[in-house]
Write a sequence for this structure.
């Protein structure tokens, strides 16, 4: 059992206690970040005269060899080590001797693990932003293709007013746009380096913390050593952002699942993103969409776990905080995997334009426009609302949409109706008249698409 703290103890740790306390099983994925932090720390120690240039070069060479050998499989990270930090340090001492024992000068595992987790989270935020960017580009491509694809808009899952598929997809673009902004904000806010904070009270060594921060790509060093080692706000924020992303994906999946049903028939899922039934040969199930919807709860669970872990901890570091990793890693893997799969699935969906348009026409989504038509003929809106209600009731009895009625039928309900009604309540007219900012009309949609293009045309990641 490779431990860094045995001098104080007169007897060995119970084996079950050791296994319960150890984190190597899951924190080994922090190896890249741990070595990166050690490299920066060693360079700073040499620059401040705490280490010699020879010692620096020995340690850097040893760290390089450990990383290379681990990556190519000749060096295994095993349960013989308590954590990733002891794995690196033990192997470094074994390879370069006494110089390796100086690696830990001026730092604690507390600020070391705080750094590793920050670096890892920052890397995953960058990965998530890239995946969000891919999804936004896919949505924008679909919006451009479907500015004239008419469909019903819904409230309460009831057909409400006509709009276009581009407009409907644009609502999700806005959601994921905000998700992208949240990730940018989190990354900027968390980008201060905790290394050099020691266990909780800094160190007596003349460290140059700003140099370390600069080497690791941070905006600067953290300002309070106690907060530095006990802060997990950035992780809670990231998990919250992932939970929101998953909520948006889940809502989208729910609609795709509905649209894919025999009752809607708005879309056809690609075979590559569907599965069959072991007993019913006719089935084609939207399992990927359902799994993304289902995995949302898993990410929510990680967020609640982290909030619960942190809610009662006094300052500064407590071992409870080791629980910041397993579920967080799972949530990161889950959310990134879902974003990637969902984007691939969405790219391959076939939209049934004719069926969508037919559904909009048969759902009386132009009823509001028919009421507006009567208002423009001088009838008060409340009276017009009542007239159109009776008109819809008549249409239901006849099994026809409003624009399939004859002018005689229309005039029997209200003499103000005339031939120009048919054009006034066509889906094309209903949608094209809606030109206010954010509406589905062509001009408004062109403005929205131009804005989205400009947003995605910026550098892929800006902080």
């Amino acid at each position: 059992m490779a431990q860094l703290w045995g001098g104080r103890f007169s007897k060995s740790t119970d084996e079950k206690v050791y296994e319960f306390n150890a984190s190597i099983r899951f924190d080994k994925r922090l190896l890249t970040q741990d070595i990166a932090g050690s490299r920066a720390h060693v360079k700073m120690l040499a620059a401040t005269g705490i280490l010699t240039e020879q010692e620096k070069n020995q340690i850097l060479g040893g760290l390089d060899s450990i990383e290379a050998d681990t990556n190519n499989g000749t060096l295994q990270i095993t349960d013989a080590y308590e954590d990733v930090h002891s794995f690196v340090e033990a192997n470094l001492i074994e390879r370069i001797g006494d110089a390796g024992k100086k690696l830990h000068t001026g730092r604690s595992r507390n600020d070391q693990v705080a750094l590793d987790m920050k670096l890892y989270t920052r890397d995953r935020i960058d990965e998530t932003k890239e995946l969000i960017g891919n999804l936004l580009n896919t949505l924008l491509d679909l919006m451009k293709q479907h500015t004239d694809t008419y469909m019903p808009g819904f409230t309460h899952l009831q057909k409400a007013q006509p709009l276009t598929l581009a407009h409907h997809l644009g609502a999700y673009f806005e959601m994921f746009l905000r998700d992208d902004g949240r990730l940018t904000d989190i990354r900027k806010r968390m980008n201060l380096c905790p290394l050099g904070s020691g266990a909780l009270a800094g160190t007596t060594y003349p460290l140059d913390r700003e140099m370390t921060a600069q080497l690791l790509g941070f905006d600067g060093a953290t300002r309070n050593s106690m907060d530095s080692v006990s802060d997990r706000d950035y992780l809670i924020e990231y998990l919250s952002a992932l939970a929101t992303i998953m909520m948006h994906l889940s809502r989208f999946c729910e609609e795709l699942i509905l649209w894919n049903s025999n009752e809607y028939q708005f879309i056809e899922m690609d075979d590559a993103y569907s599965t069959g039934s072991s007993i019913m040969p006719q089935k084609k199930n939207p399992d990927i969409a359902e799994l993304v919807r289902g995995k949302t709860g898993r990410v929510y669970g990680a967020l609640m776990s982290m909030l619960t872990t942190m809610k009662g901890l006094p300052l500064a570091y407590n071992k409870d905080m080791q629980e910041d990793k397993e579920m967080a890693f799972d949530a990161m893997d889950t959310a990134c995997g879902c974003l990637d799969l969902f984007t691939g699935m969405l790219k391959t969906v076939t939209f049934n334009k004719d069926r969508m348009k037919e559904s909009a026409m048969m759902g009386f989504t132009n009823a509001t426009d028919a009421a507006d038509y009567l208002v423009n003929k001088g009838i008060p809106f409340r009276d017009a609302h009542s007239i159109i209600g009776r008109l819809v009731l008549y249409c239901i009895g006849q099994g026809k949409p409003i624009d399939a009625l004859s002018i005689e039928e229309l005039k029997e309900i209200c003499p103000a109706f005339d031939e120009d009604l048919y054009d006034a309540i066509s889906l094309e007219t209903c949608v094209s008249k809606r030109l206010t900012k954010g509406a589905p009309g062509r001009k408004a949609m062109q403005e929205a698409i131009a804005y989205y293009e400009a947003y995605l045309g910026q550098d892929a990641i800006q902080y």
